[in-house]
Amino acid sequence: MATVDEKAASLAFRHEYNLTAATAEERADAVQSTAFGTHFTDHMALVDWTSSTGWADPRIVPLGPLRLHPAAAVLHYGQEIFEGLKAYRHPDGRIVTFRPDFHAERMRRSADRLALPRVPRGLFNDSISALVSADREWVPCEPGQSLYVRPFLIATEAFLGVRPAEHAVYGVIASTARAYFTATEEGVSLWLSTTHSRAGRGGTGAAKCGGNYASSLLAQQEARQNGCEQVLFTDAATGTWVEEAGSMNIFFAFADGTIVTPPTDGTILEGATRDSILRLAVEFGHRIEERPISVEEWMVATKAGQLLEVFATGTAAVVTPVKRLVSRDHVIPTATTGLGPVAERLRAELVGIHHGSRPDRFDWLREVS
Fold first, then answer.
1. What does the DSSP assignment read for 139-189?
2. What is the C-alpha to C-alpha distance for residues 327 and 194, in angstroms, rounded to an integer?
3. Is the model's pLDDT at 2 over the cut of 50?
C-alpha cells in the first residue's frame, strides 16, 4: 500500500490560468522596482490537507485572497510556517531554483516543531516547479535579479481550542526580487538589543515561523530609532553570545584566515546561504569554527586588529557587510569597509553559481521544466 508521502508525490497539479495576467510592461516595471516582496506574479500554488485524507487537490490558480474562517487555527494559535528560496534565469534561457531540497528539509523540521503536517519533498519541489513554470515570464535575466519564491503552510481548521489543527493549506507565491538592502555598499549597522530576545532554549528559534519574526519587530524598530538598519540578537539566557543579525546568519573573518559563525543549536535558524557559504569557505581553504562568540570577543578582537570582516547572510540579502555594532555604551566599527576580500570572494562565487557563470559543482541547482 502506498504511503501518504508516496501518494502526495504522485499528485499532478491542475491549472487555472489568470485571465487578467500582468502585461509585459507591468512585469518589467515590477522587476525594476527596488521594493522587496511587493510585486507578485500572476498565480499561486495551493494544496489542501486533512488528517483523514492527507494531501489533495494540488492546483495552480490566479493569485488572490485566501478564504479563511475567522476561527481558523492560524489566526488564533499561530500554527504556520514558511520558506524562502529563489529562481534564476541563466544566460542560456534555463530557469533554475537554488537548493530546493535544503528548503524542503528545513520546512519539514519547522512543521514538526509547529505540529503541522510534513510537506513531502516531492510535493514541495513539484509545487515550486509548477508555479515558476506557470509564471516563467516573471523570472528576470539581469545579474542581481531573481524571482523570490515563498512556500507557506497554515492551519485552517475552524475551532477554538489548543491542539494541533486537523486541516491545513500549503501554498506557494512568488515576487520579483532585487537587493534586499539598499545603499549598503559600506555595510549595515547593527543595533545590539539588550531588552529583547529572538528565541530561547527549547523554543521555535530553529523553525521558520511567523512568531519569530513578529517578536523581532519591536527590536528592529528600536534599531532604526538608533540609526541602524538591523538588530543583533544575543542569547536569551545571558545576553552574552551572538546569535542572529535580524533574520540573517552572521560571520566573522579573522586575520589568520579563520571564519567563525555561531552554531545552530536550536535557537538559530540554519540558512541555505549560511550552509553554502560554509562549504565554499572550506573549499577556499578557510578554517571554519562553528562556536559561540561573544560581543566581548568581537570588541577585543577588533581592537587587537585580529577581526577584519563581519558579514551576514540570507536568501534575500545573500551576503551583506556589517560596518559597525552599536549599543548604548559603545560602537564597534568593522576594520574593513564594505565587502572585504573574504566576503567578496564568497559572494562572487555564490552569485556566480546562482546565475550560471560559475559551475554548480555541489549540485545545488534544480532546473524548472
1. S--STT-EEEEEEEEEE--B--SSS--SEEEEEEEEEEE--SSSS-SS-EE
2. 8
3. no
Q: Which three cell numbers stand for residue 339?
A: 565587502
* Alpha carbon distance 312, 320 (integer Å): 5
Closest CA to 184 of 76, 323, 75: 323
Structure confidence by residue, pLDDT tens digits, 263-304:
998 999 999 999 999 999 999 999 999 999 999 999 999 999
End-to-end Cα separation, the chain, in angstroms: 30
CA–CA separation, 175 and 146 (whole Å): 9
DSSP 3-state assignment of 131?
Answer: helix
Per-residue pLDDT reduced to its tens digit, 203-255: 999 999 999 999 999 999 999 999 999 999 999 999 999 999 988 999 999 99
Using CA atoms, how far apart are residues 222 and 44, in angstroms rounded to an integer?
35
Between 139 and 178, whose confidence is greater? Answer: 139
Angle of CA points 108, 271, 192, to nearest 5°? 125
CB 216 within 8 A of CB 244: no
**By percentage, how much of the chain surpasses pLDDT 90?**
87
How many of the other CB atoms lie within 10 Å of CB of 157? 19
d(CA 117, CA 164): 10
Amino acid 6: pLDDT:
46
CA distances from 289 to 174, 261, 292, 293, 343 (A): 35, 7, 9, 10, 16
Contacts of residue 3, defined as CB under 8 A and 6 or more positions apart, other chains included, come to none
With beta carbons less than 8 A apart as the criterion, state whether 97 and 23 touch.
no
All 3 cell numbers of residue 280?
Answer: 565554499
Beta bridge partners of 50: 54, 167
Cβ atoms within 10 Å of 187's Cβ, excluding its own: 24
Question: Which pTM value belongs to this model?
Answer: 0.94
In sequence order, what E strands does 178-281 have?
188-192, 230-234, 242-245, 249-254, 258-261
**Separation between Cα atoms, residue 226 and residue 216, nearest integer Å:** 16
Q: 319 is written with which cell numbers?
A: 551576503
